[in-house]
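Why this split exists: single-chain examples teach little about how molecules sit against one another. For that reason, every record in the complexes split bundles all components of an assembly together and asks for one structure covering all of them. Below is a record exactly as it appears in the raw files.
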Amino acid sequence: MSKIIASAAIRGAHQIVARAEESLRRALEKYGSEAPVAFPNTGYYLPVIYGILGIPVEKIGDLRPVLEEAKNLLPPVPSERCWLPYLGPALDAGMAALFADEIIEATKYLDSSPYTMTSSPTPDNLWLGAADDVILRKRGIEFVDGTAPGFAAIVGAAPTNEIAVKIARELQEKNLYVFMSAATDGKNIAEQLQEEGVELGWETRLVPFGKDITATVFSLGFATRAALSFGGVKPGDFRRVLLYNKNRIFAFVLALGLVDDEKYAQAAGAINFGFPTIADTDIPEILPTGVCTYEHVVSNVPHDKIVSRAIEVRGLKITVTKVPIPVAFGPAFEGETVRKGDMHAEFGGQRTPAFELVRMRAAEDVEDGRIELIGPDIDTIPEGGRLPLGIVVDVYGRKMQEDFEPVLERRMHYFINYAQGLWHIGQRDITWVRISKSAFKQGIRLRHFGDILYAKMKSEFASILDRVQVTIYTDEQAVLEMREEARRTYARRDLRLKALSDDAVDTFYSCTLCQSFAPTHVCVVLPERVGLCGSVSWLDAKAAYEINPHGCNQPVPKKDVIDPVKGQWRSCNEFIYQNSRGSIEAVNFYTIMENPLTSCGCFEAIMVVMPECNGFMIVNREYSGMTPSGMTFSTLAGTIGGGIQTPGFMGIGKAYLASKKFVIGDGGLARITWMPKEFKEQMRPILEERAEELGLGKDFVDKIADETVGITAEEILPFLEEKGHPALTMEPLI
Amino acid sequence: MKEKLLTSCTATQKMIAKTTREGVKTVFHRAQGKKPCPYGTGGTCCRICYMGPCRVSDSGAGSDTGVCGATAETVAARNFGRMIAGGAAAHSDHGRETALVFLAAARGEAPGFEIRDEVKLRAVAAELGIETAGKKKNELAEEVGLKLLSEFGQQEGEISFTRRAPVKRQEVWRRLGIVPRGVDREVVEMMHRTSVGVDQEYIHLMLHGMRTSLADGWGGSMIATELQDILLGTPVPIRAKVNLGVLKADKVNIIVHGHEPLLPELIVAASQDEELLNQAKAAGAEGINIAGICCTANEVLMRKGIPVAGSILQQELAIATGAVDAMVVDVQCIMQGLGNVARCYRTALFTTSSRAKIPGAEHLEFSHENGPEVAREIIRRAIANFPKRGAVEIPTEEVDLIAGFSHETINYMLGGRFRASYRPLNDNIINGRIRGVAAIVGCSNPRVRFGDLQATIARELIANNVLVLTTGCAAINCAKEGLMVPEAAEMAGSGLREVCEAVGMPPVLHCGSCVDNSRLLIALTEMVREGGLGDDIPDLPGCGCAPEWMSEKAISIGQYFVTSGATVGFGVDFPSAGSERFSEYLFNGIREAVGAVWFHEPDPVAMAHEIITRIDAKRKALGIDVAKERVLYDMEMRRKLEVV
């Protein structure tokens, strides 16, 4: 009977709101109402409050009306008999609790922060606190492309560490993010996982938010920001924020252990977002549907069924390719590292010769499912030892094209990393692979690399691959020989890629992967313009189209040029108009000043016009400081995301800087006047090469200002003048 | 007299016995001595000209006609049309009075009244195409009042609120040419067409009958509901008591009876006035107790939680307790018999509307200018009457109920402020927890067992997982049977019970007075709009009924539901029975035009099962009669989900 739940949630909300009042009173007393208050490095203020109420909290005093709102939302506890309807009031109470949570958590940051504010725990602190916008955008794309189908917000702790690990692993294997908060009997599941040596942090998708019940709001804050940043929902448009989450973010709450009133209050708050609660204890249930997609509260679920039951209750379909290997497998393990001390064997990394190669072969040269190891296996070497490694994947398929070889080859990095205890970086002949001691102990051998690659290639590229065989070389002589062949292939591919240009093709490809989040956004990927997320090239999109002709990547014919300099084609406009649901009428591919491409929210970097300098600044996602535009990356991202055209502002992929077509309609590379220093250094080799080709001189990079020069146009301009930056003498941008 | 045969309400039984004992005649006594006219019952007694009156029969050999040649179906259709016109006129004149006071209040000329629900004011204004930005509350209210008032006398175009209906429904009405042009015009034309020698083709007559009914449901009644909400406050869930036991021996009891809530609101306010309370104390009373009867009761119940003494058939019986110091009446459903009963039990009876006087009652006319004065005067007179009471015998029956289920309440209670919607209702209809929605509305009639039919149907329906919405006297009678408390969910089938428990609501919802049947039109429309249950009202698994009807207003209400696409069943007798052809049209032929029909079923259990059968047929047509497998969403499918 859900009156018990409604009553508990309402009581819990009263308690939390009372705590918030006390926190606010103390904060006002200690710091005054004018003191700034914020979650670190975010453009979304206190996100639930901002998204739902539209109030941007910047100063402590701004929290007063929020607290009032929370109090107004608090209903009385339903009476013993002849009660009034309580579902609506309990949901309101839940929302009041979330506002109160944010007030309490925000005031914590005023004192010395109890959180690490990093992406993984530090040696002396497990709790990460609110995700900043860098994490949001980096992880956001995984929610967009389906790599992460949703998240589980776990409150409390499992009865034993063993169960905790089992639940966490199962969620990881289902590719779900796990957000952890609150305590049961003084313990949180994150602590249990830590005790068992499980690697925690955003990289492994196991995120310890905080031990207080109020830290649960970081999960809902993450969800709210997804709606605001990727969904283009306006702050304060609470209905859309919540329905966006119901239909896009497939999250749920796992309540482990005793559910007290304050936990019920969080659950009621989460139900507003369409996130149901699944409990392992015998609490009342709310089975009728409507606010959530299916049931609202399901209880008494045994631990071995709790993950699959939760997924079913949320209405989520997760297809996981079963890979026949002795360790866990899934994207959640991609970010795991294998440190030197934990390593059983390593390959490549300039220590031994190593390479990987995908080859398109004739049908008779590929025996489907054949996996062969040529050379010694890892059980022949001492712990911490090394071997050379060559991995050759031979594929055949009627629809396979040579151009897809690199697309498939780049996926090897991910597939190998998905295995728990395997670590892979680099590509081609600069790969570096490690196998952990525990993976070795669990039985991982080199042929499992073959099993992984075979299973994943066949499932993900089913429509273009009919046969796949994998040969693994560890015999040094064989590796060296094969590496020569691989290098010849790489060189041949590079030549072809160089010849590939916008002008040489008659078809571009769209990418509407993000329409699930930004319904009017249409990316168009050109040979010389990588998708703004940096992860979809023209070849990738082309291959994706071949693999799934009805998917998110569609051919965009390049016909009837309207403006060759700005890069506008009638056929492209038509495509974009139709696919943006009529909201975008024209797009120029080579300028950001007039009808630029829209942005979803996944961009790696943002370009902004700097009229005073007659050029552009570029800021990357990782840079959290102020920029000469007067806005941080977060604030900029909030302004331009969501599929709208904002002349003078554009989201880009980092690799676009290397393109010959880089904002060619605006004057190209010479327009770059400011970049964060670290970003500039990261891009230096490419920038130098391009600058030389363009006759700007290799030292052009050093003419680009950065934050050490200044973060206002006034500070930068003298530097540009002194260095003789070419932008200053170019045609005026505006 | 065998009281138990007359009613299932024990309080009523006691009071019938008392009045019998004391030789006082009430509606129950009079009904025993008065057989209904058989031709009138079947609708084929024509008295619209003086060549007759003619009783026309269509049974037996050869076709009987009136003196003018009118056939049975023409006579029945004309009478039916006139009943619609009468009902529509009643609701609409109520709406007009509300609009006039509303306008006066907006102009600051109606002491005691102010615009209470500004949110709804702005929403309604926006719907009417009135610019709201930058306008003050009263300024906007004046514009809304003027606009809606103009719709009574409008001669061309379409009544604004008809555009609230589902798009497909509006198309049906336009295709048939029955969108009402103005409220009064349709009533007048109905009277004209049914006068001697005008419209004599029954289907053609009924087309205008349908137009007139829409002028009531989507016109006069809806205007009354919406303006009353804005002026007096939109109802929210509220706890109250019902049945004669709400009268208190130690208090000054004042009963408000009739239909318009305007003066009663002021009486309720004045009853809390300290000076008057002191006067009551001085007269030996513990306080002032306001209770309602009939739809006035429903109005002040929904907004103020004022206790309900009873429904229409209890008006004389309430006085017969000897405990009513004053009864205040205005319009509709007020029995002339009150005059005599009031005299017997020394109750001061006040008529207050310029439109209605009753022999034996004192007339204290309410106008928007004098409201608080009239209210205070009534209370003073009731207090003065208190010491003059004779023997008092109040039945102990006093039952809890939850009222206040306006459209806005239903919307809110299903999702709170942030997720308010009908989605949970639709979802649980689709998944079969709730089989469908039924409305039990209308009057009570001494020709059937009072209160029993409505409550029996309600119990039967909820046991079969049908959610019940009620208004008017039907609502009061269901409440008396304890069906309107959340605990009543225990009487519901397992699916409905689960939903009631999730929401915390009773399985039978009190949606207001008889003009508030317009709320049910909005609810049906909202169910269509929310999606998953078809794209027009006839697609919904829903049905209405008025098992104990008696007023012309019930016919008008029934007809506007049918015209809006909801099938309606009536109990007692059916006023077309005298003509087979006309009955066939109402029970069948009309479906082709509007997608819904009338039906007649006097037995309550059979009525409930008829409703269930009809609901099941709709479920089948929607393809929701069999359980669907749970849909699990992968990324591809999620991309196709709309975000509003």
